[in-house]
Amino acid sequence: MPFSRVLCLTSVLILLSPAQVLAGAWTMKKGHMYNRLVFNCYYSDRVYGKGSSTHSMPLDGRFYDHNINWYEEFGITNRLTFISSVYYKWLSYHDRYVHNRSRGPGDAELGLRYKLYDGPVVLSIQGLVKYGRLYEDENPEIGNRQNDYEVRLLMGKSLWPFPGYCGLELGYRVRTNAPADEVRYLAEFGMNFTRRFYGRLKLDGIWGMGNADIERPSRPRPPQNPGLDLTGLLKTGANPPHATSSGSRSSRLNRLNYVSNPTIAPEYNLLKLDITIGYQVTKKFGVELECTPSIYGENTSKGTTSALAITYVW
Predict the structure, then answer these.
(1) Is the omega angle on the peptide bond into residue 140 within 30 degrees of 0, that is, cis?
(2) Does domain 3-313 have CATH number 3.40.50.300?
(3) What is the pTM of this model?
(4) Torsion angle (degrees, nearest 10) of CA 250, 256, 257, 262
(5) CB burial readout 6-34, b (16+ within 10 A) else e
(6) For a FRET experiment, which of 144, 189, 293, 298 has its CA 20 to 30 Å from that of 203?
(7) CA angle 138–143–146, rounded 5-degree value
(8) How many angstroms separate the first and last alpha carbons of the chain?
(9) Residues 25-82: tens digit of each pLDDT
(10) pLDDT attached to residue 313
């Protein structure tokens, strides 16, 4: 096929491609809105140790995080976009002695993205606040019950005439109370396979800054055997903990969140690979399937998230 014909067909594909072909650094047009409703299922039975080594959770433990997330972007102006993200979670932790469940709203995020430069490369800056006061002392704990503040620089480039884009992001998140601050980074590539099918890959990473307030945690530990985790408590001959109802404040595991919810340690490193395939049903409505395994980490759980998402643009 002559090159001119290939270039013409590729250009037509670009013009007919769905809105999802661009993301990251790009902002929404004034008055337009992007919505993404996601049903996530996370499962883990292993945890990362030092140097990304992994081992099974104590006592054959298993952790589940099923949640619904609504993410939206709204164009205040052509350069300024409002961002919000809210969760509702159903958590479960099981081992040979414990069967605990909790549910409730998770952390909420609000932010603004401003496009600094719109040329061959799009450059934006984003500010975000995470509010972590929507839940009580659940077991497993839904979050760290503290607020975060993040600034992020985003860069994106269209690969025209190839039907795709790539992006890089780098941010710093200040975390109040005990948890360590974080450097957050992301590399993304997306493309259209046909007029309706598209896909993207993301390397999404978190790097803890080593300044966690370990001596003054945000939630005090139980007075009995304060330096021991669940495995240590059992080794000392203490009575094994029993299952408790959701939200019970009397559970001995209630504040051992690094056991009952291994994803919210005060400090950790984590790198995930996000693989997404999408289908644009109509000009405004689409569906996506997503698989996100963790590929590197320290002091957190090793697991995989499977997701079904519904997108709507207006």
Answers:
(1) yes
(2) no
(3) 0.80
(4) -140
(5) eeeeeeebbeebbbbbbbbbbbbeeeeeb
(6) 144
(7) 115
(8) 38
(9) 999 999 999 999 999 999 999 999 888 899 999 999 999 999 999 999 999 999 999 9
(10) 96
